[in-house]
Amino acid sequence: MGHGHGHGTAADAVSASGRYRRRMVGAFVILFAFFVLEAVVGFTSSSLALLSDAGHMLTDVLGVGMALAAITAAQRPTSGKRTFGLYRVEVLAALANAMLLFGVAGYIVYEAVDRLRQPPEVAGLPMILTAATGLVANLAVFGLLRSGADESLNVRGAYLEVLADTVGSVGVLFGGLLTWAFGWYLADPIVAVAVGLFVLPRTFKLARQALRILVQQAPDRVDVTELRDELAKLPSVTEVHDLHVWTLTSGMEVASAHLTTGADADHGGVLVAAQRLLSERYRIDHATLQVEPAECARRCQALTW
């Protein structure tokens, strides 16, 4: 029998996490300062749109804070019972961010519907100035998080929140201009509803991605049936079973499989060929493979799960 695994992806992920952490510290400081500003002005000016933007800014603050905590936890070395480390904490943080966004969007839409019937008087100029300042803050944070959003689900969660809040700031700015120039107070709840509805589809996608990882579903880019067939075509391999492919955290796909061979097979050669196939064709660098004769495969078939 033979076992094999490849390394490299985990180390790359840890290195990337260090880069994300520095950028996210800066993002956290900027977001917290402007959340306080928007909340204070929103309450004093009676602007639901501004409070909606402040609510999204709060989720940004909490989201980036959780993402920072998750990255810090994930960098801790494996030990004892944590044989996979704490990489999954990043996925849990992304799911928590999505739940926060669902809650804030739902509350703002609920409040806005009531205001559509009887819109209160809103101070337009403070709304404009604060929204413009918030937009600058969001754009700065947007630039800090953009590069990591495609590589880390955790960073992507914070990035999507900032993206939604950037669009929200533009909407609030536009609504403030209408309120200030024409006294059209309905613009405030309409903008608030638009901001809430804008964020929901993106939040659903983020939650879905996090849940797919947590239930250990195979990555979208990997056709498991095709992978099984490709492994079975390797020289000396007669059958493939107990094949599992899952994602540990963003950018870290993992696989395990049992490869049944003939009695005279070169187990080392089979192992190397399987590792090369997984790495080069499927970009899976961490795989645990068991190469076994037919009598061992029969025992595996007797297992109930």
Topology:
Blueprint: E1 2-4, H1 9-45, H2 48-74, H3 88-117, H4 124-145, H5 153-182, H6 187-214, H7 224-232, E2 237-249, E3 252-261, H8 267-282, E4 286-293, H9 294-302
Parallel strand pairs: 3-4
Antiparallel strand pairs: 1-4, 2-3
Distance between the termini: 22 Å
Structural class given helices, strands, pairing? alpha+beta
Q: What's the overall geometry?
A: elongated
Report the C-alpha radius of gyration, rounded: 25 Å
Helicity level: 55-70%
CATH class of the largest domain: Mainly Alpha
* CATH H-level superfamily title of the largest domain: Cation efflux protein transmembrane domain
Uncertain runs: 5-16
Q: How would a crystallographer describe the biggest sheet?
A: 4 strands, mixed
Family: Belongs to the cation diffusion facilitator (CDF) transporter (TC 2.A.4) family. SLC30A subfamily.
Keywords: Ion transport, Membrane, Transmembrane, Transmembrane helix, Transport
Transmembrane segments: 25-51, 57-74, 86-110, 122-145, 157-178, 184-204
Domain Cation efflux protein cytoplasmic: 219-293
Put the structure in a nutshell.
This protein has 305 residues and is an alpha+beta fold. It is built from 9 helices and 4 strands; from the N terminus they run E-H-H-H-H-H-H-H-E-E-H-E-H. Helix 8 (267-282) links the parallel strand 3 and strand 4.
